[in-house]
Write a sequence for this structure.
């Protein structure tokens, strides 16, 4: 089955990295299109030709470009095509209302680690989507990470938590590296320590019986250095700040959907 990705930005490229080379890409920026073509060996085509020939169309653009794109997409969508949206905040019903017939629409929310095969991808079907459509998307995306089916009403929270999650972890890593420099370490050494610690901790948390609270407790020896650090973090309301940030991201996703 032929696949087209409309949008070659960061997330479009992340999906492309796992789906290439059996993919056609639509990208309006000439330098970006040339880069994707040479980097991944894919065909870059105009919207009309790429969509008309595809069995599955992934739409991966910024939310503020989506409405105009749907209007451009509509004349070229044909019965039997599967439309897969990776655009946060836009309900399946809105996508369906812009396209002819009764299109099968699957909403997805991947995060950036799909580019290294370790992504988390939530999927949800629209009003005209059947189980076979969801299974098709699940099979296509399985090489990119873990695919989880959720209710569409949960996608705003998924967007906030796992969609934005890499940025939260990256900010924490950045702060820890700066802290290491402040404590007297050379920056390259601080970076190595933080990034290898993050990798190892991620693997531990990925174990079947993983318990984040238990792992934290295991590192906090009585009267030791880590529990002193925990007191500082809790005293500065790190936990509350993270919870507030995720809720703010969810609320922004809901707002964009309106």
């Amino acid at each position: 089955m032929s696949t087209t990705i409309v949008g070659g930005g960061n997330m479009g490229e992340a999906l492309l990295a796992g789906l290439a080379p059996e993919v056609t890409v639509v990208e309006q920026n000439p330098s970006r299109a040339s880069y994707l073509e040479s980097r991944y060996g894919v065909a870059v085509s105009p919207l009309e030709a790429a969509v008309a020939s595809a069995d599955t169309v992934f739409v991966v653009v910024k939310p503020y470009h989506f409405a105009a794109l749907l209007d451009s997409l509509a004349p070229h969508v044909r019965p039997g095509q599967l439309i897969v949206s990776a655009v946060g905040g836009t309900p399946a019903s809105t996508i369906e209302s812009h396209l002819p017939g009764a299109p099968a629409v699957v909403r997805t929310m991947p995060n950036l680690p799909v580019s290294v095969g370790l992504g988390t991808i939530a999927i949800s079907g629209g009003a005209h989507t059947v189980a076979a459509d969801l299974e098709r998307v699940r099979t296509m995306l399985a090489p990119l990470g873990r695919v989880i089916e959720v209710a569409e009403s949960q996608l705003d929270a998924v967007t906030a938590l796992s969609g934005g999650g890499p940025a939260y972890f990256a900010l924490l890593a950045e702060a820890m590296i700066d802290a290491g420099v402040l404590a007297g370490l050379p920056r390259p050494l601080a970076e190595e320590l933080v990034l290898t610690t993050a990798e190892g901790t991620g693997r531990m948390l990925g174990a079947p019986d993983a318990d984040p609270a238990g792992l934290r407790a295991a590192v906090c020896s009585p009267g030791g250095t880590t529990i002193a650090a925990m007191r500082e973090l809790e005293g500065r309301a790190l936990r509350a700040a993270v919870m507030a940030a995720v809720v703010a991201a969810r609320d922004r996703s809901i707002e964009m959907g309106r």
Observations:
- The longest strand covers residues 104-110.
- The mean pLDDT is 94.
- Strands lie at 3-6, 23-26, 43-44, 56-59, 82-85, 104-110, 119-125, 145-149.
- The radius of gyration is 21 Å.
